[in-house]
Structures are given as structure tokens and as C-alpha cells.
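User: Design a sequence. Structure:
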């Protein structure tokens, strides 16, 4: 089993100084918990402090690398057999339940734990990277496609938009004219790929989406293996793949398949080639592949392209810092081993310059809000800063109307929120440890610092800017991208702890990690948009057969005589996006009375589940509203399929 040998570490203590600074910063940030109960605000300082403290303790008490204990060959074979049977059982559960239920997710988490235990404790002689990678991919396929094929229609909101409103007209017209007025006119790769697959295979657009982008989203995680191999051995590189494959937002974009999903695929490829060009001399093929994936991400998704620009900008900055000697001043001496080949110090500068040029040209011709994308976004950012910026200006739900009760209240709501974030907090802990290890390493230092720096900057866009009310950059889209460098650096931290801490403690710690991390990730809100584990607290972004039947029927019977129907969010989003009918969200007045008049579409989830209602011009919340208020049994009904009802509110004339 490959371990981190003490000879690869530098003699200076920049890592120790950084750990001390991190510990002090964590202590300074702890009082934020008195200002907000948001889990990420209260838990990140704790994770930061524990990681820095753990690193200091391990660094001082355990000064030599050790081997992990191993399991017998027979037990290793038995675990593989158990995995195969468990995977078959997983398929049967999804088939029988027609959904990814809690038993499905628990078994999937257990199978992921089996994979991690194999990676931690199987002997070198019995370990086969190919077999374990095949297990990870097989589990990824079942976890994602069980959602895709048991969910009627699509998962999410934007997937309906991109397939029904954009891709279908492209498929029917055999041209990009349907995108002429939207920003995807300059980023049509996702839509072209799905439409082309449907035409070539003779399948529906839904199946074409699953068989093209869906398959790629399942298999692309192996790219993490190649990127991790520049820092760790094969075993720990496979660990990085496992951590990334089960991460909640990576699973999210594997079931809610939109241009972000395809952009994520290209981004991870760019991460690999960035690390490669910082680690070994770049060849013409490397430049060609980097150019290919850079152009591909630009023509796929604007947010993904911006995130890639952040990565390349950070990589170029770090490379130039070391070229001109500033890196050595900041991080200590750069003792590159004699065995390492010289790397072109200008390689990424050329790539980043070309990428930025192509991006600017593309955004300059991208239509957006009666302007171009590159003109509109700075104005939007300026408006957001002037109107919404403010410390702790978070999105909060308003007080519930008197006729309704909040869907999620009390301590249980806090527990669910922490459960949803626990997987991230664990990965963040490992990433901090891994970042300190990067500062301590002598080899692959520039590449490691790029991953650490880009993670930190992504956290600014994901957490810090929203903390001040700036959400222009759509922070929820950044998580899956941020997980790529975090998985690599976090695995470096995990391997450091595993080979430094001795005795029973590390064995127990790794087993607990294998049991807890996959489960918290696979059952988190982001990974279960199709069928949340906590339906009273987390919104379901998928619909039943009867709910979709009501949507399509609305387009046939025209219940509002060409007007609007009113229902909850997100149910209201599927009406116009499916091409059926225009819909808006039900609103309550300040006194708690129902302020919506007209045709209401009621579904049981509005009375017993997490659905959003408006309580003012800029406020909303998840509430349980009784059916008797929204659609009483003795009221005027247009439609009733047993689950979904369309009725007119009593206060409406005619």
C-alpha cells in the first residue's frame, strides 16, 4: 500500500503557521452563530477549527508514516460478492417501489461504504483499481438511472425548459432559430447533442437526454482518478473518485440534467489538464484537448464557462507567481525533485488568454434581456450590490399566514438542515487538512496550490457573497464544480491522516467515515430532488403521473379561459414549461387570508408536504394549507383525477 513518505515533506513550517492562522480565524468566526442559525454559517468555523487543530496534533505527535491494517483476501472477495448482490437488490427495490425510497438510499449508502472499506483495508495484492472503479460506476448508474426512469417526465425545473421549450423546437425545425432570442443561441451544445441523439437512435427526447448527457454524467467521474494520480497512488485516487461520485450536488446534476450537467463534465476535464500542464511538460495533444474542452464549455453554459475562467485565472496566477519567484517568498522554497521534468512556465498563460478571448467574443453575441450577455451582467451585478447588498442579508421565509402552518418547524428543521450539510462539512474538514498537507509537500506544489486557491475562491462565490446578499452568480450551481478540487485535496488530507494516526483510532475513524459520509451525501436534499428523504422539510422537484396528467389536461380544457391558473411552487413551473398553460404561485395577504382569486390547482402535497406559497411581493415560505381553504369539496370544480383538483375560488366573479 502506497503511503506518504516523510521524505516528500519540506522542512519549513509554513503549513504549521497556516494551521495556526486557520485556528485563530475559526475562533474569530465562532460568534457568527449568535447572528444566524444557518448551518453553513455555524458549522464551517467549527469544521475549520477542528481541521487545523487535528492537523497540528497529528503533525506533532505522529512524525512517521505507517501502514493501515488490512483485511484478508477471502473477506475482500466476500465484500465484492456482497456488493454485486446488493446492487441487484437495489435495482429490484427501485423497480418495485417506482421511486428511490429511503430503503433504496440506505442500501446505496451501504454499498458505497463497502467500496470505501475495500479501498481502505484491502491488501495491495488483492486490490484492483479497475474492479473498484467498475463498482463505483455501476453504483453511480443505478443511483442516477433509478431516479431518471422511475420519475415521470423530468426532475427539476430547468430540465423541462431545455427539453420542451428549446430542444423540441430545434428537433422539429432542424435549426437553431428557436434559440435566436435566448442566451443559449450562443451555447447550444447541450440541445444539439440531445436532438441529434434522438434523431440518430430514433427515441424520444426524454430517452435521448438520458442516453446522451445522462450516461456521460454517470461515467465522467473517472476523470477525477487521472487528476488525483498526480498527488497520490492508485488506491487513494480511486478514493477521490468514490467521494466525488456520491457527492450530493454531483448526483443532483446527474438526475436533474441541464446544461450545467454537461458543463460540469467539461469543467472536470479542464481541471485534469490544468493539473497536468502544471505537473509535466505540456505536449501538443495537451494544448489541443484543453482547447477542445474550453470551447465546449463556452458553447454549453455561461455559468460553467465563468467557473472555468476562475479556475484558469487562478492557475495562471499561481504559475506566474512561482515563475517570478514570488511563490517561493510566500510559500517557502520550491525544491522540485531532480526526477521531475521542467514545466513550461507560460503554458497556462497562453491557454487562459485564448480562453478569455473566445469567451468575451461569445458573450458579446449572446442575446440576453434585450441586450448582450456581456453588457447585461455587469449592470445586474451593480444593481444587486446597490439594492440588496448587506451583511447577513440572507433569503428568509416570512411569517406563515394564519390559515396555514409552516411545513418545517422546531428542532427537527434544524436537524434536517444540518443533516443536509453534514456531507459537505466532512469534505470541508478533509479539504482543510489536505490544503495544509499541500503547503507541506515538496512535490506537485504548484498544482496543489491551484486546487487549494480555486476552492477558496469558489467558496467566496458560494458562501461569502450570498452572506452579503449577492446571489447574482447563482451560488447553488457552484457546489458540484467546487467538489472536484475538494475531492482531490480532501483525499490527500484523508490519506495523510490515515497513514499518520496509528492504532485502533484510525481504523474506527475510517470505518465511521465510510458509514457516514456516503449516506449523508446520497440522502441530502441536493441528491434527492426526485423524492426527498424528509418530504415535510425539503421540496420535491418531480411529479407523479396524476400531477402531470392534470398539467396536460389544463391545456385541453382551458379552465381559466386563456388566463392563469394558480398553484404552489414548484408545481406552477411545469405548466408553462410543458407547453400546457400559464400559471402563477398562490398568494396570501398580510392578514393571512387567501389573496389569490381565480382557478386554483390543488394537490395533496400542499396540505402535507413542502411546497412554496407567496406571502408578499418578495416573500415566500413552505406551508401546509388545508384543502378546505384552497379547493373545498363543495366548491366549483373543473377537474378531479383523484389526486389533483382544479377549482375556482369562492370570491371570484363568474
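Assistant: Done.
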Amino acid at each position: 500500500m502506497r503511503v506518504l513518505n516523510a521524505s516528500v515533506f519540506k522542512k519549513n513550517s509554513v503549513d504549521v503557521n497556516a494551521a495556526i492562522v486557520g485556528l485563530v480565524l475559526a475562533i474569530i468566526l465562532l460568534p457568527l452563530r449568535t447572528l444566524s442559525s444557518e448551518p453553513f454559517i455555524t458549522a464551517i468555523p467549527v469544521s475549520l477549527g477542528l481541521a487545523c487543530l487535528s492537523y497540528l496534533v497529528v503533525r506533532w505527535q505522529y512524525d512517521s508514516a505507517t501502514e493501515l491494517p488490512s483485511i484478508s483476501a477471502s473477506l475482500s472477495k466476500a465484500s465484492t460478492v456482497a456488493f454485486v448482490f446488493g446492487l441487484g437488490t437495489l435495482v429490484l427495490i427501485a423497480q418495485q417501489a417506482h421511486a428511490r425510497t429511503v430503503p433504496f438510499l440506505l442500501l446505496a449508502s451501504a454499498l458505497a461504504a463497502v467500496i470505501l472499506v475495500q479501498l481502505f483495508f484491502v491488501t495491495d495484492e488483492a486490490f484492483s483499481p479497475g474492479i473498484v472503479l467498475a463498482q463505483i460506476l455501476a453504483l453511480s448508474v443505478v443511483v442516477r438511472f433509478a431516479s431518471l426512469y422511475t420519475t415521470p417526465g423530468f426532475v427539476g425545473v430547468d430540465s423541462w425548459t431545455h427539453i420542451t421549450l428549446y430542444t423540441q423546437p430545434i428537433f422539429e425545425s432542424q435549426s437553431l432559430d428557436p434559440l435566436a432570442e435566448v442566451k443559449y443561441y450562443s451555447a447550444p451544445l447541450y440541445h444539439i447533442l440531445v436532438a441529434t441523439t434522438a434523431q440518430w437512435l430514433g427515441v424520444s427526447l426524454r430517452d435521448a437526454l438520458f442516453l446522451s448527457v445522462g450516461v456521460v454524467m454517470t461515467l465522467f467521474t473517472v476523470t477525477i482518478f487521472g487528476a488525483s494520480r498526480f498527488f497520490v497512488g492508485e488506491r487513494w485516487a480511486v478514493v477521490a473518485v468514490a467521494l466525488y461520485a456520491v457527492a450530493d450536488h454531483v448526483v443532483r446534476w446527474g438526475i436533474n440534467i441541464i446544461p450545467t450537467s454537461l458543463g460540469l463534465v467539461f469543467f472536470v476535464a479542464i481541471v485534469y489538464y490544468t493539473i497536468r500542464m502544471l505537473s509535466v511538460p505540456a505536449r501538443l495533444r495537451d494544448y489541443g484537448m484543453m482547447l477542445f474542452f474550453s470551447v465546449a464549455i463556452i458553447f454549453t453554459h455561461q455559468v460553467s464557462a465563468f467557473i472555468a475562467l476562475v479556475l484558469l485565472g487562478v492557475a495562471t496566477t499561481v504559475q506566474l507567481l512561482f515563475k517570478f519567484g514570488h511563490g517561493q517568498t510566500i510559500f517557502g522554497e520550491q525544491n522540485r525533485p531532480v526526477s521531475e521534468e521542467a514545466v513550461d512556465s507560460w503554458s497556462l498563460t497562453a491557454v487562459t488568454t485564448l480562453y478569455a478571448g473566445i469567451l468575451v467574443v461569445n458573450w458579446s453575441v449572446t442575446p440576453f434581456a434585450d441586450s448582450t450577455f456581456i453588457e447585461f451582467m455587469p449592470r445586474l451585478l451593480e444593481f444587486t450590490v446597490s439594492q440588496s447588498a448587506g451583511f447577513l442579508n440572507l433569503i428568509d421565509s416570512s411569517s406563515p399566514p394564519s390559515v396555514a402552518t409552516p411545513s418545517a418547524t422546531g428542532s427537527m428543521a434544524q436537524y434536517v438542515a444540518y443533516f443536509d450539510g453534514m456531507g459537505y462539512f466532512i469534505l470541508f474538514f478533509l479539504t482543510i487538512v489536505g490544503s495544509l498537507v499541500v503547503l507541506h509537500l515538496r512535490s506537485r506544489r504548484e498544482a496543489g496550490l491551484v486546487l487549494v486557491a480555486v476552492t477558496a475562491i469558489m467558496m467566496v462565490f458560494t458562501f461569502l457573497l450570498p452572506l452579503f446578499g449577492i446571489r447574482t452568480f447563482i451560488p447553488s450551481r457552484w457546489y458540484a464544480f467546487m467538489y472536484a478540487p475538494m475531492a482531490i485535496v480532501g483525499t490527500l488530507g484523508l490519506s495523510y491522516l490515515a497513514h499518520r494516526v496509528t492504532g485502533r483510532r484510525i481504523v474506527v475513524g475510517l470505518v465511521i467515515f465510510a458509514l457516514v459520509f456516503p449516506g449523508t451525501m446520497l440522502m441530502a436534499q441536493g441528491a434527492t430532488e426526485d423524492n426527498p428523504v424528509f418530504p415535510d422539510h425539503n421540496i420535491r422537484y418531480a411529479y407523479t403521473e396524476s400531477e402531470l396528467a392534470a398539467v396536460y389536461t389544463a391545456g385541453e380544457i382551458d379552465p381559466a379561459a386563456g388566463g392563469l391558473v394558480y398553484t404552489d411552487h414548484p408545481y406552477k413551473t411545469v405548466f408553462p414549461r410543458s407547453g400546457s398553460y400559464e400559471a402563477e404561485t398562490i398568494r396570501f395577504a398580510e392578514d393571512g387570508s387567501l389573496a389569490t382569486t381565480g382557478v386554483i390547482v390543488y394537490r395533496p402535497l400542499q396540505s402535507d408536504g413542502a411546497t412554496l406559497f407567496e406571502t408578499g411581493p418578495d416573500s415566500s415560505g413552505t406551508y401546509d394549507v388545508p384543502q378546505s381553504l384552497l379547493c373545498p369539496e363543495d366548491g366549483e370544480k373543473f377537474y378531479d383525477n383523484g389526486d389533483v383538483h382544479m377549482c375556482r375560488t369562492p370570491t371570484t366573479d363568474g
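Strands lie at 367-368, 371-372, 405-406, 565-567, 583-585, 599-602, 612-616, 619-624, 636-640, 645-648. The longest strand covers residues 619-624.
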